[in-house]
Design a protein that fits this description.
By secondary structure, the chain is of the alpha/beta class. It has a single domain (3-189), classed as Rossmann fold, CATH 3.40.50. Helix content is 34%, strand content 15%. It has helices spanning 30-46, 57-65, 90-106, 117-129, 144-155; strands spanning 3-8, 50-53, 72-73, 137-142, 170-174, 183-189. The protein has a six-stranded mixed sheet, with helices on both faces. Helix 4 (117-129) crosses helix 5. The longest helix has 17 residues, at 30-46. The protein starts with a strand and ends in an 11-residue tail after the last strand.
């Protein structure tokens, strides 16, 4: 794999109201659809030779709007399971226990019934690395948490050092032919400019 293109799905209906969704199967908002359409030309220029997507609706809707309606869906690319926090407003979680929320963002705390970061990182890495022998330019349409987990696994960036990835944004990792380690080429690119206060 020479280049890995990571796209976070466009804004979902719950992103729009800052509600934590985890693996809840929430559709794109109209703004999210517009974000995906706006990114399509950039992704087409990158000419991915293989496309995979999370099987959650907001991700495969985004893949379709990018021009890849037949992208293979892989449940290992689902967002982290946030357990009892699913559906809660982020502001309410922070008000109830800001330290727990900071720990969750840092990958050191799992909500009750939620998925541990290490397990999440392993499953997402396995999904991507299993494609490394068949694609030189792999497009992965997924979720913000998945992108942060892959940045940790592939680049060694701790999740607490990474801002939430903007909806409808593109991140690119690459390596040269003689290298095995990947490098960050682009982070959080969106045609309308980066979103610096993106919802989780």
């Amino acid at each position: 794999m020479r280049r890995l293109f990571l796209v976070r799905h466009g804004e979902s209906e719950w992103n729009a109201v800052r509600r934590l969704q985890g693996q809840a199967d929430i559709a794109l908002s109209s703004q999210g659809e517009a974000q995906a359409i706006a990114l399509a030309a950039t992704v087409a220029q990158l000419a991915p030779d293989r496309v995979i997507t999370s099987d959650l609706r907001r991700a495969h809707q985004t893949a379709s709007l990018l021009g890849y309606p037949d992208a293979r869906q892989d449940a290992r690319l689902r967002e982290v399971n946030v357990g009892d926090w699913t559906g809660l407003p982020i502001a309410d979680i922070i008000a109830a226990d800001a330290e727990a929320y900071r720990g969750w963002r840092a990958g050191t705390f799992a909500p009750p019934g939620g998925e541990h970061w290490q397990d999440f990182s392993l499953r997402t890495a396995n999904a991507v690395l299993s494609e490394s022998g068949t694609a030189k330019r792999l497009l992965v349409v997924c979720h913000g948490g998945v992108i942060r987990a892959l940045l940790q696994t592939l680049l060694g960036l701790a999740p607490k050092r990474i801002i939430p990835v903007g909806p409808g944004s593109l991140t690119i990792l690459a390596n040269k032919p003689a290298e095995t380690e990947m490098r960050l080429e682009v982070f959080n690119f969106a045609p309308g400019g980066p979103v610096l206060d993106a919802p989780d």
